[in-house]
Specification:
By secondary structure, the protein is an alpha+beta fold. Helices cover about 45% and strands about 30% of the residues. It has helices spanning about 5-15, 35-65; strands spanning about 20-25, 30-35, 70-80, 85-90. The strands form 2 sheets. It has a two-stranded antiparallel ribbon with strand order 1-2. The protein has a two-stranded antiparallel ribbon with strand order 3-4. The protein starts with a helix and ends with a strand. About 0% of the residues are buried. The mean pLDDT is about 80.
Length: about 90
């Protein structure tokens, strides 16, 4: 026991630079994140930029699709050996 405590203390001092920033427990098991808080913040900002870009793209597509008011929705039904197949299309005149 007298030798164990100094050995543990020495091991902690030697490995002081290699510490985990966060430990995650999830469905995939336990994972250790060694990134600094600044690196995680940068990754978060990148994800937010991608999400904002995606939302702007969706809004632009919605506006483009709904710009014309003389459009109608046409639903066609077709009988196949496996059953009825419905296809809905938007037709703009």
């Amino acid at each position: 026991m007298k030798r164990l405590v100094p050995a543990l203390l020495a091991a902690l001092l030697v490995s002081g630079g290699a510490y985990a920033q966060s430990i995650n427990v999830g469905p995939g098991g336990v994972s250790v994140d060694t990134r600094s808080p600044r690196e995680r913040a940068v990754d978060r900002e990148i994800r937010e930029e991608r999400r904002d870009r995606y939302e702007r793209h969706r809004e632009r597509e919605w506006r483009r699709a709904n710009y014309r008011r003389d459009c109608r929705t046409v639903t066609t039904e077709r009988e196949t050996p496996r059953g009825v197949v419905r296809r809905t299309t938007r037709v703009c005149d």
